[in-house]
Amino acid sequence: MTRIAITGAAGRMGRVLIQAVDAAEGAEVGAAIVRHDDPMLGLDAGAIAGLGKDLGIRAVASLSEVADQFDVLIDFTTPAVTLANLSFCQQHGKCIVIGTTGFSDDEKISLADCATQTGVVFAPNYSVGVNLCLNLLRMAARVMGEDSDIEIIEMHHRHKVDAPSGTALRMGEVVAETMGWDLNEVACYGREGQTGARPHQQIGFETIRGGDVVGDHTVMFASDGERVEVTHKAQSRMTFARGAVRSALWITDQKAGLYDMQDVLGF
Ligand SMILES: NC(=O)C1=CN([C@@H]2O[C@H](COP(=O)(O)OP(=O)(O)OC[C@H]3O[C@@H](n4cnc5c(N)ncnc54)[C@H](OP(=O)(O)O)[C@@H]3O)[C@@H](O)[C@H]2O)C=CC1
Ligand SMILES: O=C(O)C1=N[C@H](C(=O)O)C[C@H](O)C1
């Protein structure tokens, strides 16, 4: 049985992750970690997740209180919290599955540095569908890229704090890589005013925020006379949570190193 700890356990993803771990074969909730001032501190993880039953796991405020109670950590929090938790996992020989988005380039370098001594899965999106779309995008970019204008549109709930989404950025990286472009040079994050005509070698990003949208992404290849759109719409956070739990079970059998959901799926 793999014991899984969840940080940000009272968050939108944290609560669904508790449900997903509880439902998964071969996994159990080993620990739940919340902020020291969270009203959920001390409550049972089952109550936090609205499971209607106790799991016998009281929410604590720090990983050090539960270091011997888990094998893998699943962390969907904020970049600063994730990096601190990754460092803890590295020091204590624990694997970690990271879902957090919004890292700066420097933070991503620190993350990769830490991943040399322990097993780390890091993906901006744990749904199977989005990971399939990344492969479809490689093919679309190969076939349509030279003759198309490429735009990425994403919509998320009003609470999301980073933009563009980590998934949109990953989609941009995949398309840019396939086209032989550097995303830093070709990305255009929104347009306003006298923009001039659109250069061909550009990937435009449009971010929409509103309501309770779980996560919609469209990559558009617009050429003269036709348009291809690759769209993914997540309807439930459970799709991300199941992918993260699958990653947690997978990473325990791997060598130390940095992996993503494409590795977990064997793509
Ligand atoms: N990779 C993927 O498949 C997916 C990734 N995500 C990403 O996961 C992250 C979390 O998303 P979501 O669950 O919606 O966000 P939430 O804000 O609901 O959850 C984050 C949790 O982390 C807690 N937290 C924040 N700061 C601290 C701290 N200093 N110490 C302890 N706990 C802290 C928050 O507590 P508090 O509320 O008190 O601040 C909250 O419970 C985002 O980066 C999002 O983009 C989301 C869905 C899928
Ligand atoms: O914050 C969210 O909610 C989501 N974040 C991820 C991202 O930034 O790509 C994944 C998903 O779309 C939901």
UniProtKB/TrEMBL annotation:
NAD(+) binds at G8, A9, A10, G11, R12, M13, G99, T100, T101, A123, P124, N125, Y126. It is an enzyme of class 1 (oxidoreductase). Its EC number is 1.17.1.8. Residues 3-126 form the Dihydrodipicolinate reductase N-terminal domain. (S)-2,3,4,5-tetrahydrodipicolinate binds at H157, G166, T167. It is found in: Cytoplasm. Residues 129-265 form the Dihydrodipicolinate reductase C-terminal domain. It catalyses: (S)-2,3,4,5-tetrahydrodipicolinate + NAD(+) + H2O = (2S,4S)-4-hydroxy-2,3,4,5-tetrahydrodipicolinate + NADH + H(+); (S)-2,3,4,5-tetrahydrodipicolinate + NADP(+) + H2O = (2S,4S)-4-hydroxy-2,3,4,5-tetrahydrodipicolinate + NADPH + H(+). Coiled coil: none annotated. Gene3D superfamilies: Dihydrodipicolinate Reductase, domain 2 (3.30.360.10), NAD(P)-binding Rossmann-like Domain (3.40.50.720). Transmembrane segments: none annotated. It holds the Pfam family DapB_N. Keywords: Amino-acid biosynthesis, Cytoplasm, Diaminopimelate biosynthesis, Lysine biosynthesis, NAD, NADP, Oxidoreductase. The active site is at H156, K160. Its main location: cytoplasm. One of its GO terms (molecular function) is 4-hydroxy-tetrahydrodipicolinate reductase. Belongs to the DapB family. Catalyzes the conversion of 4-hydroxy-tetrahydrodipicolinate (HTPA) to tetrahydrodipicolinate. Homotetramer. HAMAP family: DapB. This is 4-hydroxy-tetrahydrodipicolinate reductase. It comes from Oceanobacter antarcticus.
